[in-house]
Design brief:
Order of helices and strands: EHHEHHE
Number of helices: 4
Distance between the termini: 27 Å
Shape: globular
Strand content: 5-15%
Number of strands: 3
Largest sheet: 3 strands, parallel
Helix content: 40-55%
């Protein structure tokens, strides 16, 4: 799997679960039946047809606004990777356009 072929899940500006699910649906081109809930996301991630490198960027605002949902998202990503390690890799981009206030860039 080449990082050049990565799917970018840009969460910049996302602060709620509905927007998170919409971004997932768009970035991953999830099927129409995607129910926009955690179980449906887990099912879709383990059913990916092609090996996928998913780069999650701009996630800090979501993590700050909805820490419990962000923890669940990370668990869903981790479980999908554990179940299908040759099909899915998830990378969290550090820094970027959503730097936390007061954080100094590397």
């Amino acid at each position: 799997m080449r990082i050049d072929d990565a799917v970018v899940l840009d969460l910049t500006g996302v602060t709620d679960k509905a927007a998170f699910m919409e971004r997932c649906a768009g970035a991953l081109r999830l099927p129409d039946w995607f129910g926009r809930n955690w179980d449906a996301l887990a099912d879709c991630l383990t059913d990916l047809a092609e090996p996928t490198a998913l780069v999650v960027r701009g996630w800090h605002a979501y993590a700050d606004a909805r820490p419990d949902d962000w923890a669940t998202a990370q668990e869903v990503f981790a479980s999908a990777v554990d179940e299908r390690p040759t099909r899915l890799t998830v990378l969290l981009a550090l820094g970027g356009s959503d730097e936390r206030p007061g954080a100094s860039p590397g």
